């Protein structure tokens, strides 16, 4: 997960959630707030009351977007215009001038509970016909006339332990689902998100097991936990996190955390910190850059349109040129930066190549990285190939121990991998990803 941003657009369902005949409209977020504010409150109210109400409306909408409240339930919209569930929105209505100016000023500000990062589910009601535990719209008018500031009005209803986040960045609202299934061997921040969420769900549902180390490695323990979750919540227990499983995990996680409630357990900054970069571009360095370079090198070997790159670990001009060429070929925005869409396309292209190699490349097929990170507990032909190359490398370098070629990634194999990593300047993890695989192949080829 990432820190909340202000979406450029929001999709509004013009009806109750279950009304499939009601249309959706996609509108700029700032226009949505202007419309909602013009529909919910009166422009003649004091400025402090207007601002307090608009802060609440912004936070309410952002909470729906950030938690993917409806999308995690299988809907294709972010919020409804039904006041039974959400906020009033009248498609095409006129906007009051003073409300428009206020929204222009504060549309990227929102309320949070101190210590939490998610936008507060700022529940509110009119305070006359309907009362609730949140903000009273008409009550804000009285408080404003008493001289309270917008922040003090909000504190009156939501508690002293709130803050306002000012000038949050805007961004294109991407769905949280990474776009490709997560499975055994995947390593990413998205895997880390799933691991954290499964751990928290397991507090309320102990049958979701085992407890996971949130390291971003989709290992056999993660697969087991995913299968147990899928079994409990009536999904196919295949251990793969596709779109349906992703959003079911998110929906249950939101529920046990109470993220769509006024009194929420909340998310702290530690809950959403990252260890994997979300974008890689010129000047970046490290193992993630090496993985991108490896994929580009293999793709370029079989495709003359993609320039060859060296595995330097630095996102240099040659890497940028190769990324741009790949993006242009794939019909992606050509910016030279490896974000989610480019990464997914790189992965898909790489896997397509290694699973459909022409016969004339059969002699090198065994040397090509299998497309998934190998870790403890994984079994199969990929592991057997790795073990064979480790033993070939051990004939060339005495510091490399021999391993049993049994197709099981056990402690012996992991230990040999760690020794190879330590002696070749690779981060020591005991996992075999593209960089480690490439190093072992090179060591095995030395005569």
How would you explain this protein's 3D organization?
There is one protein chain. The chain is mainly α and 447 residues long. It is built from 16 helices and nine strands. It has helices spanning 29-40, 47-67, 97-106, 137-145, 150-158, 189-204, 220-232, 243-257, 269-272, 287-302, 317-330, 340-354, 362-365, 381-396, 411-423, 434-445, and strands at 6-7, 9-13, 24-28, 79-80, 110-113, 124-125, 135-136, 162-165, 170-171. It has a three-stranded mixed β-sheet. It has a two-stranded parallel ribbon with strand order 1-9. It has a two-stranded antiparallel ribbon with strand order 5-8. Helix 2 packs across helix 3, helix 2 (47-67) packs across helix 5 and helix 6 crosses helix 8. The chain is elongated and about 85 Å long. The model has no long low-confidence stretch (mean pLDDT 95).
Question: What does the secondary structure layout of this molecule look like, with pairings?
Answer:
Elements: E1 6-7, E2 9-13, E3 24-28, H1 29-40, H2 47-67, E4 79-80, H3 97-106, E5 110-113, E6 124-125, E7 135-136, H4 137-145, H5 150-158, E8 162-165, E9 170-171, H6 189-204, H7 220-232, H8 243-257, H9 269-272, H10 287-302, H11 317-330, H12 340-354, H13 362-365, H14 381-396, H15 411-423, H16 434-445
Parallel strand pairs: 1-9, 2-4, 6-7
Antiparallel strand pairs: 2-3, 5-8
